[in-house]
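Sanity check

After download, print the first record. It should look like this:
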Amino acid sequence: MQIFDRIDSLIDAEDCRAAIEEARALLQRSDALTDAIDDFLLDLITLAFIVEGYGRGFELLARTLARRRWRRRVLSAGGVDSARQK
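Expected structure tokens:
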């Protein structure tokens, strides 16, 4: 479940665009996450849009939302142990 932890850490990345590219690369290599790819990338792209368009004022809220949605996907994909450690 290392991929779950690495993707979770991308939510806090300073460079949102680089995080998006890394998430795409990680998710494309993972058959277990096929259903989560589009939703997670949409969340990360939305986060980048918010940070770029509105500054850092909404960043914490956007990151919190992205993290909660990601953890729900981890739980539904069977990554319960990984999600509980957070």
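If your output differs, re-run the checksum step. Summary of this record's structure: The radius of gyration is 12 Å.
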